[in-house]
Amino acid sequence: ILGPDPPRKRRSASRSEFTDSNPILPLSNEIIPCPTCGEIFHNPNLLELHQSTKHAVSELCDGDSGKNVVWIIFKTGWVEYDRSPNIHRILKIHNSPKILARFEEYRETVKAKAARAGDERCAADGNELLRFHCTTLVCNLGQNGNSSICNNHYCSACGIIRF
């Protein structure tokens, strides 16, 4: 005699089957808004990726003290002051907390080594130096408020920031 199939036990998905990398099924109800544009994320790593690509830089405007300091240091570094290159824009790179933490950790290592060796200057600032880099920019990064890095293989500026 055939009858209806016995009820099957439904297998419930374990929590481990869903990961943070699945944006459709977040593990928590946590929402993290981007402080710059307000876009919502359910994962801090996705917010960090968003910020590092969509809000990578800002242009330092006229009258900004940081722009004035960078401009003065750049111009005075040239032997022939009037023959120095024209500055079109000064962009400030917004590094992620992870990048800044790695930098600070490395600087502390350099400072500790310098202190043991008796190098006062390096022990004070970890041999931090301000250097300038002229490079190719093929996108509109920094223009009209654009802070997103591009994916153009020939845009060296965005490639440096992405690295």
UniProtKB/TrEMBL annotation:
Annotated Gene3D superfamilies: 3.90.228.10
Tree of life domain: Eukaryota
C2H2-type domain residues: 34-55
Protein name: C2H2-type domain-containing protein
Transmembrane segments: none
